Amino acid sequence: MQKLNRTVTARALAILFAGSVVLVGCSSSPDDAQMKQLNDLKEEVSALQKDVAAKEDQKGALDKQIAEKNAKLKKCNDDQAIVKQRLAK
Fold this sequence. Notes:
With 89 residues, the protein is mainly alpha-helical. It has one domain (2-88). The chain contains two helices and no strands. 0% of the residues are buried.
């Protein structure tokens, strides 16, 4: 029963909050300052997305280098094991 009351209360609060946000957030149109701020934010988002893409490319290149070095290291370790095996005979 308490769980039901909590659920009803939580939903009522959520509906009340959503309604107040809608009422407070409504305006006829944004003014010039708000539009400039919005455009600035869009430009910033675009620039940040380009930075993210560049960093992901760098990460891919670094991952490739790491894989190459790990392969080379594995080959060296295998060669070393073969040499130790042959010396032990």
